[in-house]
Write a structure and sequence with these properties.
- This protein has about 350 residues and is α+β, with helices and mostly antiparallel strands.
- The protein folds into two domains: about 180 residues, no CATH class; about 140 residues, no CATH class.
- The protein is built from nine helices and 17 strands.
- Helix 4 packs antiparallel against helix 5 and helix 8 runs antiparallel to helix 9.
- The longest helix is centred in the N-terminal third of the chain and has 39 residues.
- The radius of gyration is 27 Å and the shape is elongated.
- It starts with a helix and ends with a helix.
- About 30% of the residues are buried.
C-alpha cells in the first residue's frame, strides 16, 4: 500500500471514532436536559434519533404540547428550541417576531406591521396577521406583558398563532441547562393561558351574536345580545325589519356624526373633511370642526370608517361609538360585522385620545 493511502486510512480510523464519540456525547447531553425538564413538567421524553432531536411531550390544560430541539440549514445549521401548544381552531392567524434590520427593510417596502399603540411594545416587534381586529384584540395588555417577559428572558423569539389552533414559540439556539428549559416552558404556559382569556372574551361575544334566531323576541321586539370586547360594549340586535344592528359603545369623544350622504338628513353644521374619498360618500357634522378634521385626517380612522359607513348605508359614527346597520340577517356574517364596528370604535377612541 502506498504510504499516502496508508496515512489517510490511519487518519480515518483514528478520527472517525473520535467524531462519533463527540456526536454521541452531544446527543446524550441534549437527552439529559430533556429528561431533567420532563420530570419537572410531568412529560414523556422522546429519544433522539438520526432524524429527530430529543423532545418532551406533555399536556397543558388537557391539550397536548411539545418541547423540542430543532435545526435547519444543511451543513452549518441554525439551532432552535421549539415550544408548541396544540388547541382548538381560531378564526385568525398571527406571527410576531423581534424588530431587526431585515424586518425594518420589509416594513419600509410596504410589508404588513400591525401596531397596538403601545410605545413599550410596538418598537420591539413586527406583527403580521389577519383579520387585523382579531390580532389587535388578542394582544391585550396582559398578553403584551407576557411576550415582553419572554423576549427579555430569551431575546430571539418568534411566536406564531396558526388558524388550526397551534401556537409555536421558537427560540434561536439550544438551551444549555434544565433550569433554562423549565423557565422557557413556564413562560410559554403563562402566555398561552392569557391568550386563551383574550380569545374567550371576543369569541364568546361573537358566538352569542351568531346565536340570534327569529325565535328570540319579546312583545316589543327581538331581544338584543349584549357582550364586551376589550373596552367596547357591544349590542347586537335583529329587528322586525330583518336588519342586523350592531352598536359598539366607547366613552364620549367628540360631538361628531358621520353617516352615508344618502342618509344624512338635516345634519348641521356640516364639516368638510378635506378628504375627497370621504366627501364622495360621507357627510360629517359636529361642533368642533378643527378637532373633527384632525381626527378624519388620520389614515387609520379613514380605513376603519369607510368599510362601515360606505358599505352599510344607515350606519354612522357617533360621539359615543358606532352603529352599524346591515340589511338582512345572514348570521354567518355577524361576527365580521361585529369586528368592523368594534375596530372602528377602538380606532377612533385611540386616535382621539392620542
Amino acid at each position: 500500500m502506498e504510504p499516502l493511502a496508508a496515512t489517510i486510512l490511519t487518519a480515518i480510523a483514528v478520527l472517525l471514532p473520535i467524531g462519533w464519540a463527540h456526536t454521541k456525547g452531544k446527543r446524550q447531553q441534549r437527552e439529559a436536559r430533556m429528561v431533567g425538564v420532563a420530570g419537572r413538567i410531568n412529560g414523556e421524553v422522546q429519544t433522539e434519533t438520526w432524524r429527530k432531536f430529543a423532545a418532551v411531550q406533555f399536556n397543558h390544560k388537557d391539550k397536548p404540547a411539545k418541547l423540542q430541539f430543532a435545526a435547519e440549514g444543511g451543513e452549518s445549521p441554525t439551532h432552535y428550541t421549539d415550544l408548541t401548544f396544540f388547541g382548538d381552531p381560531r378564526p385568525f392567524k398571527m406571527r410576531l417576531r423581534p424588530e431587526d434590520v431585515l424586518t425594518g427593510v420589509g416594513t419600509a417596502l410596504g410589508m404588513q406591521d400591525i401596531t397596538v399603540n403601545d410605545p413599550r411594545f410596538d418598537p420591539k416587534f413586527v406583527i403580521r396577521g389577519a383579520p387585523v381586529p382579531f390580532v389587535i384584540e388578542t394582544l391585550s395588555p396582559t398578553v403584551r406583558a407576557d411576550i415582553i417577559e419572554l423576549y427579555t428572558a430569551n431575546q430571539n423569539i418568534d411566536i406564531t398563532l396558526h388558524s388550526d389552533g397551534k401556537i409555536t414559540i421558537r427560540k434561536l439556539g439550544w438551551f444549555r441547562s434544565v433550569g433554562e428549559l423549565d423557565e422557557y416552558v413556564r413562560l410559554g404556559k403563562k402566555l398561552v393561558n392569557n391568550l386563551a382569556k383574550a380569545h374567550g372574551r371576543h369569541w364568546r361575544a361573537i358566538a352569542e351574536a351568531r346565536g340570534l334566531t327569529m325565535g328570540q323576541h319579546a312583545p316589543t321586539g327581538y331581544q338584543p345580545i349584549v357582550g364586551t370586547i376589550g373596552d367596547v360594549a357591544v349590542q347586537t340586535l335583529l329587528n322586525r325589519e330583518n336588519q342586523t344592528i350592531i352598536t359598539a359603545r366607547i366613552p364620549r369623544i367628540l360631538d361628531i356624526t358621520a353617516i352615508h350622504k344618502d342618509h344624512a338628513k338635516e345634519l348641521a353644521p356640516l364639516v368638510p373633511t378635506g378628504n375627497p374619498v370621504l366627501d364622495m360618500s360621507v357627510r360629517v357634522a359636529g361642533q368642533n370642526a378643527t378637532a373633527i378634521q384632525a381626527l378624519l385626517a388620520n389614515p387609520d380612522v379613514v380605513d376603519a370608517l369607510l368599510p362601515v359607513v360606505h358599505a352599510y348605508p344607515g350606519s354612522m359614527l357617533r360621539p359615543d361609538g358606532v352603529r352599524l346597520m346591515a340589511s338582512g340577517c345572514r348570521l354567518t356574517d355577524v361576527g365580521d360585522l361585529i369586528d368592523k364596528a368594534v375596530h372602528l370604535a377602538q380606532t377612533v377612541h385611540r386616535v382621539a385620545n392620542s
